[in-house]
User: Fold NAD(P)H-dependent flavin oxidoreductase from Streptomyces galilaeus.
Amino acid sequence: MQTELSNQLGVEHAVFGFTPFPAVAAAISRAGGFGVLGAVRYTAPDDLRRDLDWIEAHVDGRPYGLDVVMPAKKVEGPKNHTLSEADVEAMIPEGHRQFVRDTLAKHGVPELADGEASGWRITGWMEQVARGQLDVAFDYPIRLLANALGSPPADVVARAHERGVLVAALAGSARHALKHRDAGIDIVVAQGYEAGGHTGEIASMVLTPEVVDAVAPMPVLAAGGIGSGRQIAAALALGAQGVWLGSLWLTTAEADLHSSALTRKLLAAGSGDTVRSRALTGKPARQLRTEWTDAWDDPDGPGTLPMPLQGLLVADAVSRIQKYEVDPLLGTPVGQIVGRMNEVRSVRAVFDDLTRGFERAVDRVNRIAGRSGQ
Assistant:
């Protein structure tokens, strides 16, 4: 599974694995892929530095990258004052806060203990947090910086390029991909409707060739609904130079979900058990369908708030749901490929399956092409 891009980065397989877990990122790189650590949950620079130190010690010299969530524009307050987290919190209506309290009370979700901080807080969207992450990351030999919220600011792209770091950005349409190209991005990740997390409206089979044609000769990675070697072969046949996989790693042995109940839900879920909902962050994000997503999507409810208000509103609630494993409300971002995630396997075992499936698919196409050429 080698392409021009994988050769450029010095990896054996053109499989880019996004994950919030350092152990998974390192295992992906050791298996011959390209591990990408998600940074959005790191609000303290020292925590990110600790985990990058760990990756450096366990990646066996293989390349890896970092994924941030950085807006192209600052969130500004009056007189061009950049809003703090407290400023944004103050914008959340009391009616929405009460809806959260009522929903949690309905399901008997306990409070966090006194002094126990929320372990789930999306503040990485804030520019000052993301820039702090980059100050740490650029002290390490990362080879790729990916941004999950449009093109990063121009000075960040320039800063990465000065260090020889390639910059990737996710796109849900050809129009978005062209904006990335014009912003000096090096790689476009064409993320289809089937993918976990924030997605657009276009399915991968349609999106990938559209983006490939729009930004050629820029390299494109295909994302969304990919979890087998056959699907990797299809993505490369559509013109992609690799695949971007995220959901598939959630049920690997190296993943640390801190919740056996959530792992069981993922293993039992089918491809129809996800929903594209604004419940988590305020932007449409594919995740397991739960009574929590149903409550926020109910037309009789208050509706979700725009990003970043929704993420801050539900942060403590999600931490409580996860800590106490409240099954009806317990969920996570995950793509429709969850229907194939039926057992816990090591990252290496996943790679072995992907490579074997890829080889079989390519052999099959070659046999068909050979017969048609006779």
Summary: The two ends are 27 Å apart (CA to CA). The CA atoms of residues 271 and 338 lie 6 Å apart. The chain has a mean pLDDT of 91.
